[in-house]
Design brief:
Number of strands: 2
Helix content: 55-70%
Radius of gyration: 29 Å
Bound molecules: fe (ii) ion
Strand order of the largest sheet: 1-2
Number of helices: 17
Distance between the termini: 71 Å
Oligomer: single chain
Shape: elongated
Strand content: under 5%
Order of helices and strands: HHEEHHHHHHHHHHHHHHH
């Protein structure tokens, strides 16, 4: 958690004391320890390995379902004791202070939710057929209080431990959150309310299958959670693969560093503007990142040549879309992105390469990429010219609209640019001496086509 401010420490202290004082008041007589121990063990299991969906984002665990079931089965004090089992979670990482805060927060949330359940007319004990539907309103009220208290306390600690320059990675890994920004609260609220319903299911099933109820309800949840974790891992592997290939291209062709990323962003802007559906937007994001991966198959001395190219050299550059396809063809998740990579230098008038496709023969991804690619090239610094202003680049896109570019995608890009703006790359940090050795030409710039030496 790092060094905390006095206010943050005071806040954590107040939460801990409040939880301890409320629970210490009892009553402890007549508590159903069977429920408390079984559900407490569930909390330990849930808290021992919260699933992190993405690095630095949210993670979740179904422990709130166990706590809400305990509200019905064991009342406010019993539920708070179930919350206290959070302290025994086996997950490595949380510091003692984080653990203390998480535990106090869970105890307080469960206790106050239990009080709300009673205040709204709920009865503690095993629900049966006659308990429904009367139990639903008090249970829903308890679930709302539970979520509100947890998220309120969590938002407070995140705010007090936030770091100005980064997401609050030093914040306690409270509840189902690891370094989560408050902006994610909405999604967490929804998922927690969803888990609350499982709490009622556990309580209701207990009268039929006894202590197996939590297993029966939560095993499918754990399986689903495992599947989500696998998916998150897979996404991470995809990102790493694409990132490594981009890095390789940009190492080889220094002057285009950041270009892949910006083409990817521009392509996504167009895709969203024309209403492309989610999976295709994701695919075009990859296509943007990898559109020039074929440069890995072009000799470095050709990519970095300052003078006119020989016909062979020009042919080598023109081969890069095919080379790109060869390199990434076997990467299954790229799917439609492959067509974009292969054809991103085709022109609407049929005078592009490598196939000379025209109009709608050119895959949609390739037509989108072509616009973003040219725009980023024009608005980036090249050794033979400075970055051109955005307005000038838009004018250039319009000029070539209908011959080089698909007019619909030029329009979509311009509309998205006007709304969202464009973050231009930082100017080059190369020394002036280096500039002469870096690529003097740009195969993406419509205003500066490659120069080929006359071989005759
Ligand atoms: Fe290219």
């Amino acid at each position: 958690m790092g060094k905390l401010s006095r206010v943050a420490l005071l806040y954590i202290g107040v939460v801990a004391v409040a939880a301890a004082v409320l629970v210490a008041r009892g009553p402890f007589t007549g508590l159903s320890w069977q429920y408390i121990v079984v559900l407490g063990v569930l909390v330990i299991v849930s808290e021992s390995r919260a699933t992190q969906l993405r690095q630095g984002q949210l993670s979740w665990s179904p422990s709130s379902a166990a706590m809400l079931a305990s509200i019905v089965l064991a009342g406010p004090v019993g539920a708070a004791l179930v919350g206290a089992f959070t302290a025994l979670g086996l997950r490595r990482g949380p510091s003692p202070l984080q653990r203390a805060f998480n535990t106090s927060m869970h105890m307080l949330g469960a206790y106050l939710a239990g009080r709300a359940f009673l205040a709204l007319g709920g009865h503690v004990g095993l629900p049966d057929e006659k308990s429904f539907p009367a139990i639903i309103a008090p249970f829903a009220g308890a679930a709302l209080i539970h979520v509100a208290v947890n998220h309120g306390l969590l938002s407070g600690v995140l705010w007090l431990t936030r770091r100005p320059e980064r997401t609050p990675s030093g914040a306690p890994e409270g509840h189902r959150v690891q370094g989560v920004g408050v902006g994610l609260t909405g999604r967490l609220l929804l998922s927690d309310l969803g888990y609350a319903a499982y709490g009622l299911m556990i309580a209701a099933l207990w009268s039929v299958v006894g202590a197996f109820a939590p297993l029966l309800v939560l095993i499918p949840l754990f399986v689903a959670r495992w599947a989500v974790a696998q998916f998150a891992e897979q996404q991470k592997a995809y990102e790493a693969t694409v990132g490594a290939l981009c890095q390789a291209v940009e190492t080889k062709d220094f002057y285009t560093r950041g270009h892949s990323d910006r083409v990817s962003r521009g392509s996504v802007m167009i895709a969203r503007e024309i209403g492309m559906r989610g999976e295709r937007v994701e695919a075009i994001r990859y296509a943007g990142m990898l559109h020039d991966v074929g440069k890995l198959g072009v000799p470095t001395k050709v990519l970095q040549k300052t003078g006119k190219l020989t016909e062979e050299e020009y042919a080598a550059i023109q081969l890069h879309p095919m080379r790109g396809l060869d390199i990434v063809r076997e990467i299954g998740f790229l799917d439609e992105a492959l067509a974009g990579i292969m054809h991103h230098h085709e022109r609407i008038d049929g005078r592009g390469y490598p196939m000379g496709l025209a109009g709608d023969e050119i895959p949609e991804f390739a037509r989108v990429l072509a616009v973003a690619d040219a725009f980023d090239s024009m608005t980036s610094t090249r050794s033979y010219r400075g970055a051109r202003p955005v307005d000038e680049a838009i004018e250039e896109l319009r000029k070539w609209s209908g011959t080089q570019f698909d007019p619909a995608f030029v329009d979509a890009f311009v509309a998205a640019l006007k709304r969202e703006g464009w973050q231009r790359p930082e100017p080059s940090v190369l020394a002036a001496d280096d500039l002469a050795t870096i690529a003097a030409q740009d195969h993406d710039d419509p205003g500066a086509p490659l120069r080929v030496a006359d071989s005759r």
